[in-house]
Every structure is written in C-alpha cells, then in structure tokens.
Please model this.
Amino acid sequence: MTTESPLIIALDYPSLDAALCMADQLDPRHCRVKVGKELFTRSGPSVIEALHGRGFEVFLDLKFHDIPNTVASAVQAAAEQGVWMVNLHAGGGRRMMEAARERLAQHDLHTHLIAVTVLTSLHAEDLREVGITASPAEHVERLALLAQQSGMQGVVCSAQEAGRLKNVCGEDFLKVTPGIRPSFSATDDQQRIMMPKQAMAAGSTHLVIGRPVTQAKDPMEALAAIQAELSVSS
Ligand SMILES: O=C(O)c1cc(=O)[nH]c(=O)n1[C@@H]1O[C@H](COP(=O)(O)O)[C@@H](O)[C@H]1O
Model:
C-alpha cells in the first residue's frame, strides 16, 4: 500500500511486540513506518515482514557506513526485503554511494536510496570537535550535493536545511527530516529541530517523527494533532 502522507513514524522500540502494538494502531494509508538500529538488531528481518504484512511501506534506517562493497551488499540485502527506503552515510564518500546505487541498478531493485548528511543531534560545536569547521548548514549542503552527484535520490537532513537544499538540489530531491518537534513535545537529544508545519513549508518532503508520538501519553491523540496541523488524513 502506498500513501501520499509525508509522515514516517519511527518505531524505536526494544521488541517486535512493542513495535507491532504501535503499528496496529497506525493506518498504512496515512503514514509510513521506520525501522531503526535497535528494533532491527533485536528482531531482524521478521519485523519487516510483519510490517509489510500489515500493508506498511518501510524505511529501513540502518545508516550504512563501510567500504563500498560491504555497503553495496547491505543495501542489496535491504532492497531484496522489499523495503521502500534505505539509507547510508554520505560521509562514506562518493565511491561508497556509487557502489550502492550501481548494485541496486544491476539487480533491478527500486528501493529509494538516500544519504544521511549531518545528524540532527549535532550542532556546530560537535562538528568542530571532529575537525569540521563549516557550519552544519554548509556541511549538509556539501554532503547533499555529493550525494546527488553519486546517484542518491535524496538525503536525511534537518528541516532547518531543507530550504537551502531545495535551492541547490531541486524540489524532486528527497529531503527526509527527523528532529521534528510539535509544540507539545520535549526536544530530547535533538539539536536542529523544527515544528511539523514549518518543516513542510521549509521544503521537507518527508517528516520522521518518533518520540513525540511513540512516547506520548496518548500516541494516537499526538499523531492526530500533528495530522490536523498538517491538514492530512488521520
Ligand atoms: O536517519 C534517521 O532517520 C535519523 C537521522 C538524523 O539525523 N536524526 C534522527 O533523529 N534520525 C532518526 O529519526 C528518529 C527521530 O526520532 P525522535 O527524535 O524520537 O522523533 C530516530 O529514529 C533517529 O534514529
């Protein structure tokens, strides 16, 4: 089942049961779901099968970053499970991204392949500590252009950079933005955040939302509030 909704709910749970309990309250016509490192490490590919069985398009967020052949093989493995989207780190460089893209093409696999730029949990001081003197926005732009030249269909960035990327990479280049924080939720460990409506207005194509929904007292009420703000179906 496919959806027009920009919402991707991050199922960051410690067990298959907990993740499916949440998924069973969601409607695959109105959102996609994301499986990340914790859930996949605990439950393996069975969580992907279970979510596909419920009609969801799945973003497998394992942020691959390794030598080109290893990443290409991992991306192939993800795509062969039929996931809608998979990501890798743009910081792995051009040859790594090109190898992944070419592997998908060789096997006629059509999973969306996107690259993480600068994690939304980082700010300028964190970059300086690892030797990057550019601002987060400048570094995101540099990595996004490299990702685009390397055949990626889009990037993960913060919504704060989405407008800039719309100008330099174009509207069709996907801007998948986590660090989304509605007015009613805590910042948690995120640094470069934005509210849902503002994030869409800034040029995000997809919004990744986890704890503001999954850790809310009433997750469905929180999701409905976000959908109402965005004027999309619940
Ligand atoms: O690739 C991601 O999805 C990702 C990249 C990034 O820069 N920041 C980021 O928060 N994420 C993921 O997006 C989700 C955000 O969750 P919340 O902060 O709970 O809304 C988590 O699953 C993160 O792993």
User: Anything to note?
Assistant: Residues 213 and 221 are 8 Å apart (CA to CA).
